[in-house]
Amino acid sequence: MNDEIAKTDEEWRKSLTDEQYRVLRRHGTERAGTSALNDEKRPGLFRCAGCGQELFSSDTKYESGSGWPSFWAPLVGSVDTSVDRSLLMTRTEVHCSRCQGHLGHVFPDGPLPTGQRYCMNGAALRFDPKQD
Ligand code: FE
Prior knowledge:
alpha+beta
């Protein structure tokens, strides 16, 4: 099954806010400390702001001190990575496996059990609090 989302650039521009579009479709980075999701500590799921795919559980969120929402692992199969050589650095870029929207980067300086830090733009995410 091919569950990937294909939209034209113009369709994305219309369906997202300016900041979501800049991050998700133009590999932008939000200013550190500006996302309300930095302080989100309720149980729930963080979804892709582009296509709604579930990306991260609150169980893996932690305070990295970076100013961006940070997680030590994504949900299985929800993200893919690629090498990003922009800004005179080599980083690992993280994007949604469904709509390919840019989410942020992953760095090998996270906490156990994975040692990974998924440094995400809050603008690329949508939080769904757990209902019960
Ligand atoms: Fe997506």
